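Lab notebook, bench 4. Continuing the backlog of folding jobs that were queued last week. Each job is logged with the same field layout so the records can be merged later without manual cleanup. Today's entry covers Tellurium resistance protein, a 152-residue chain. Filled in by technician R.K.

JOB TYPE: sequence-to-structure
TARGET: Tellurium resistance protein
LENGTH: 152
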Amino acid sequence: MPVTDRMPTMGKLAAAIGLGIVGWVGSELFRPLMPEDTNFGWFNYVNVVLGVVCGWRVTGTRLGRGYAEGFSAGLTGLGALVFWAIFLQSLNEMLKRALDNRYDGAVEGITSMFELATEYALTMLDGTLIGALLAGAVLVGVISEWVARRWP
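JOB STATUS: finished
OUTPUT FIELD FOLLOWS
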C-alpha cells in the first residue's frame, strides 16, 4: 500500500460521511422488517460508525481512478458495511443470549451466531431496503470520486 493511502483526503472524508448516512438510512429502513418487540439499543449508531469506517478505509482508498472506479468503490464499501453490520449485530445478539445461559458451549454459541447472521441477511431481502442501499452506495461513490478530483 502506498504511503498516500494512509493520508487523510477530502475524498475519504466524503466517502466516510456518505456511507455513515447510508448506514443510518439503512438502519431506519431495516427496523420495520423486524418483530415489534425488538430492542434495537445502539443499532443505528453502531451502523453509522461502521459506515464511517468502511467509507474511509474501503471506499476512500479506491478513489481518484475515474468515475467507474468510484461507482465500484461505493458498492464495495456498501458490501463491507453490510457484512460487518450483520456480523456485529449477530455477535451482539449471540452474546445477549449467552448471558441468559441459552447455550451449552462455545461452539453452540458460534453456530447460533451464524444462524442469526443468515436470518438477518434474509430479513434484509426487501426491495426498498436493497434499492436504497444500492442507490446510496452508487451516489456516495460518484460524489466521493468528484470530491477526490476537485480537492485532491
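OBSERVATION: The two ends are 18 Å apart (CA to CA).
SIGNED: R.K.
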